[in-house]
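User: Hello! My lab partner asked me to get a predicted holo structure for this protein. The small molecule is magnesium ion, SMILES included with the sequence. Please write out the structure tokens.
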Amino acid sequence: MRVQVLDLIKEYDGVRVVDIEGLFFEEGRFHVLMGPNGSGKSTLLEIIAGLTKPEVGRVLYGDRQNDFASVRKRITLVMQRSYLFNTSVYNNIASGMNYRGINKSILRERVLKWAEALDLNLLLYRNVKTLSGGERQRVALARALALEPDLLLLDESTANLDPESIIIIEKVLKDFQRESGTTIIFVTHNVFQAKRLAESACLLMKGSVIEEGESKEFFNNPHSELTRGFLGGEIVY
Ligand SMILES: Nc1ncnc2c1ncn2[C@@H]1O[C@H](COP(=O)(O)OP(=O)(O)OP(=O)(O)O)[C@@H](O)[C@H]1O
Ligand SMILES: [Mg+2]
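Assistant: Hello! Below are the structure tokens for the protein in complex with magnesium ion.
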């Protein structure tokens, strides 16, 4: 599902935290969103996911430029700090599908499929309270992927994981995107990870788009001095 952000302004306590004239996320692509702490990445994802209302502007979804209400079931956000229910891994992965009324046999199939993909099979009947932070993050991802959304929004989904888990998750996401044609918007601080994953990249600073474009151009030949500074690690945040 493609996404168009138009003339968006979001303020908290009179401070502008998102201010974007126009930004397009093309259908079926892997978009990576980068930026320093507090640059508005999470806020932008929350607005796209319909959780936060902007002061001005709008977001349009799909070819027919739908509003949020008609597409909400096709969108999934994995938040920076995901909430898990106090129950088993199995029930947590199933919870999103339960909520959306997905048929029980499909639900079971998908829980097992994504538990396997994210290496959670041996943990399926453990309460999530007993899991490590990295394991919990994988449960949140499995829950999101099992919904097979057309638009998947991921906020720092590998931030606390070890390199081995990061590689597993990156492969799972890439395979999922290729097979499903899902549009992914992935927020990360890690420039190396962004390079591995992005087809399109975007840099936000202080709520505004500094630069966006095709991955190759963005990383190899950035136009903005600020992008060069960010990619070169010169901007401290
Ligand atoms: N609910 C809120 N109330 C007040 N201010 C908020 C709220 N949510 C976010 N902000 C402020 O908006 C700005 C942007 O926050 P946001 O979480 O979008 O940044 P971010 O780019 O995701 O940062 P990080 O890399 O640290 O996750 C920050 O200055 C933050 O303090
Ligand atoms: Mg954030």
